[in-house]
Amino acid sequence: MWMILSFAASTVLAILAYAQARNFVTRRLRYVDAVQSTIAPFIAGIGAAVISLPVVSLLGVIPIIGSIVGFGTALTLGLAVGTGVAAGVRDIRNKLPGY
Questions:
Q1: What are 29-75's pLDDT values in tens digits?
Q2: Pair 89, 26: CB distance under 8 Å
Q3: pLDDT over 70 at 8, yes or no
Q4: What pLDDT score was predicted for residue 95?
Q5: What is the pLDDT at residue 97?
Q6: Beta carbons of 88 and 44 less than 8 angstroms apart
Q7: Domains in the chain: how many in total?
Q8: Residues 39, 44: Cα–Cα separation, whole Å
Q9: What does pTM read for this prediction?
Q10: Burial of 44 from C-beta contacts in 10 A (0-12 / 13-18 / 19+)
């Protein structure tokens, strides 16, 4: 049962992180040249994973929550943020003239 809850929590977190990252890049970072580089999604994904690792380790101390979230959840969050940034950049390139 804990595995199903862990998978569900990780999936919901990944969907929300992807949507938020894509929306943020599309709306707020539209005219920022640095986000248009090919390395920006990697930096965002690695940054999100590194920032979420201490949070996940602190949540691991709590008995019930510790069995739901773990190292894989932090990696899934980083992957979702990275792909969300890449999708947002792709949206920007398709909407703006000249790309």
A1: 988 999 999 999 999 999 999 999 999 999 888 888 888 888 999 99
A2: no
A3: yes
A4: 85
A5: 73
A6: no
A7: 1
A8: 9
A9: 0.90
A10: buried
Contact 21, 44 (CB under 8 A): yes
Q: How far apart are CA 73 and CA 89, in angstroms?
A: 24
Containing structural domain, residue 88:
2-95
CA-derived radius of gyration, the chain: 15
Q: What does the pLDDT read at residue 99?
A: 56
Q: For residue 14, how many C-alpha atoms fall within 13 Å in the half-sphere facing its CB? A: 17
**Residue 24 token pair:** 């943020």
When the pLDDT of each residue in the chain is averaged and rounded to a whole number, the result is 92
Contact yes or no for 39/14 (Cβ under 8 A): no
The SS3 of residue 87 is helix
Q: How far lies 66's CA from each of 13, 15, 59, 94, 96, in Å?
A: 16, 21, 6, 42, 44
What's the number of CA atoms in the CB half-sphere (13 Å) around residue 87? Answer: 14
